[in-house]
Structures are given as structure tokens and as C-alpha cells.
DNA sequence: CTATGTAAACAAC
DNA sequence: GTTGTTTACATAG
């Protein structure tokens, strides 16, 4: 990491500057702090930022109330916390009980690396190109990175809450003061923290991201009545539930089946009769980088069942990031509303060969492939109308199968970079935005037409061999030309 | 747009 | 049939 540019925030910005809906939940918390604190800074000129404010990325806003009310009653699961040194979890806690609910900001004790951050590559966020009032971190475009760092270094995890219910419930304003005192001045706070630590931030006690009104009205029953324990797992997303399952497991490892069992026991999802939830679990296990399938241990004789485990990162962090984050970039839109769904699917782009390649080593033994999911050969398809082409901006190019990318990586001994590689500096090497078209496999030679306008692109990242691999074998239909999301669908 | 859920194709076992 | 990957689509917020 070449984190270099240090920063300091001393400016203020409009309360509603941030649009939470556009920020990944992992990063919203901090935004919230920013904006919340800003609101109370009418009399202050110094912006406070708490990088380590109690933050439970696990807890979605809808569940916050439930969590809170459960804290007292629930016998906190005795969670071992391998990579965690609890002593570093200085109980900087706010007082959710105080009517005026003052929140004291306490700088993190371990966020040493927060004092700086990198100036990464691209990254264009909604806020990136933001207004002039935005806090100038340095390069506006790095806001996300910065926030990520904050999040990453947060030491307030759900577990912390679990273990400190008493403090949560009984803490008074001075608790904070105490810890602050005990802790002493943080070693070079990342961001200038004002000393007026007693200053109350006008924030409701409901929780991180939910305004009182919303939380109260939307979840009335979560107040103080029924919460056996079941509802704690109730609404959590799969990724978080899986995290819990693994967290509770010895060694933080479980087989898929065991995870299923855990779900059946501890969640409502798992009580479904259908298999959908299992599919979802597998989906999450696969797609979330927080979960890894440790190759089966020498399980005597049996079929080696993979052991799913939490990555060290997830353990350290105390949570797993949104599975969404590991999905391919948004492809939505451009998918014509009236376009037949089936027609829109990109032949051969799903799983299968793609998945296979990405996954293991084995070479796909190209066996005959049934061509199901072949859309109503029916009459539609009057689409051969030559497409107008780049309508300028939102041109939607169907995302190429990840396989191609990973295959490419593999062929370069790049150690299978996952999906996020699309955001990596290497992106350029396989940026399909340069691909303009492709000949039809049966006819042509799978020739890629690249936009040679880019001088940086001194080579065609994908050799035709690969293309043949996933196009040529897709059966009679041909990739792009017949692709459901092909040009014809880009109409309107 | 983000986060999540869900279905399903598909490859390897 | 199960496990694991991955894409497609949907929907809530
Ligand atoms: Mg994974």
C-alpha cells in the first residue's frame, strides 16, 4: 500500500450532502457521522470525525432497534474472537439511553493507518464529482477509498456489542469521558478531533443510520416486547447469517451441510421447504470474498467436503462485506423493458464454463452440451436490423463472461483475480469497452474489433482462442450477434 | 444506485 | 444429486 496523502478535514458541508442510498452500507456509517455531526456544528467550525465510532456494520437499520432491545435479554453467544484482541476495543460508547442522547466522539485507538490514504486509481463515485462544498479530502474522487479505510479499521463490531450489553444499556455520558481519559489522546488522530468531546451531537439513540421517526414507525414492535431470540437472525441477510454460523463454529469452519443445518436451526430462511435458501447460501458463499472454501481436510475416506471458513480478513474485521460488492458491475438498465427476458440472456455466459474455469483447475472436457435455455426459437427476432450503434453514452454492452477474464488471468499466472479486478488498475488490460464487435463464430474467425483509438492498448487482451472457448462451443447460436442483450435490445 | 434475494445454467464430482 | 461459480433479473429503499 502506498498510502501517502494525509488529510485533514476542517471544512463543513451541508447536512444532507450525502446521499446514503448511493453509498454502500459499509460506508454509510461514516457518512452518517459526518452529516450528523455537521448538523450540530452550527456553533462549531471544526468538523469532527470519528473514525472509530461504534459501528456495527452488521446491523442494518431495520434491525437496529431489534438488536438493541435484544442486547439486554440475549445471552450473548460466547464468541471466541481469534484475530481479535479485545483489549483494543476500548469501550468508547455513547449513551443511547440519555434522553438528549449525546454522542461523544472518541478517536480510535488503533486506527493508526487512518492518517493517510492512497490516491488510488479511478473510482468515480456519486460524490466524486460532487459539489464545491464537499470536504476536500484531497482529490474528491478518493472519498470512497477513504471511507473504506475508515470502515476497515473500525473495531466496533457486532461482537463488541454482544459482549458489552451492560455498557450499552447503562452507559452514561461519563462512560465516554472515562474511556477517553483512560485512553489518553490518541496517537495522532487521523482527522482532527476537536476537544469539545462533551459536545453533544444531536443524534437520536436509535442507532447508526436510522432517524428516530423512521425506526419508530416502521418497527413498533421491536421496542420492548417480544424478542425471544429468533428475530435476531430473522432479517439478517444471508451473508451475515453465514458469518454468524461460521463464527460460532469451532475453527470458524463448516461444511456446506453444516451451514444448512445451522440455518435450519437458527433462521427462518432455513426453515423453508424449498431449496431456494440453500441456493442462496451457496451463492453467498461463492460470491462473498469473506468466505472461502478451504479444501477439505483429510476427512477419512469420505467425499472430501469443503470446509467453508471465514477469511482472516473477515475475522479481523468482524463482519463480511456485502455480497453485492463482489458482483459484477451493474448491468441493469439498457435491458429493454419490453424485451423478452429469455432473449436477453447471454448464451453461455452463465456459470457453467465460466464458473468452471474460474473455479478449479480442471480443463473443461467439452462434452456435448444440451442447449436448453434456448429461447423460443419462435418468431420474434426480427432484430437483424443493423444496429445504429453507439448512441453516445449508455451503450450497454453485455458483460462478458467472467470466465474470459479469469481465464485470461490464469493464462498470465495472475493468480485468479476475482471480480473486483474490474476495478483494479489492471482493468485496462481486459476492458471490454474496447470491444466493438465480434464476428459470428460459425462464419468468421471470432475476430474482435477493437477500438484502436486507445494508444495505451498495445495489444488485444483476449486471444481468439479464449473466445472460441466460450463462444464457439456455445452451440448454434452465436455470442454477441445473437446475444439477447445484443444491439437490437439497445433500442430506445 | 445499492443491497439482497432468487432462479438458473453449468461444470465437476 | 451435490457443490461451487457465475450471470440474470427483481425489488426494496
Ligand atoms: Mg467466497
UniProtKB/TrEMBL annotation:
Question: One MF term in GO for this entry?
Answer: RNA polymerase II cis-regulatory region sequence-specific DNA binding
Q: Where is the composition biased (Low complexity)?
A: 191-202, 376-395
- Pfam families found in the cross-reference section: Forkhead (PF00250)
Which sequence positions fall in the DNA-binding region?
A: 233-329
Compositionally biased region (Basic residues): 366-375
Record keywords: DNA-binding, Nucleus, Transcription, Transcription regulation
Under the heading SMART domains, the entry gives: FH (SM00339)
- Main location group: nucleus
> In which residue ranges is the amino acid composition biased (Polar residues)?
74-89, 203-222
GO CC: one term? Answer: nucleus
What's the protein here called?
Fork-head domain-containing protein
Q: Which InterPro entries match?
A: Fork_head_dom, FOXJ2/3-like, TF_fork_head_CS_2, WH-like_DNA-bd_sf, WH_DNA-bd_sf
Region named Disordered: 74-129, 177-231, 349-399
The residues covered by the Fork-head domain are: 233-329
Indicate where this protein resides in the cell. Answer: Nucleus
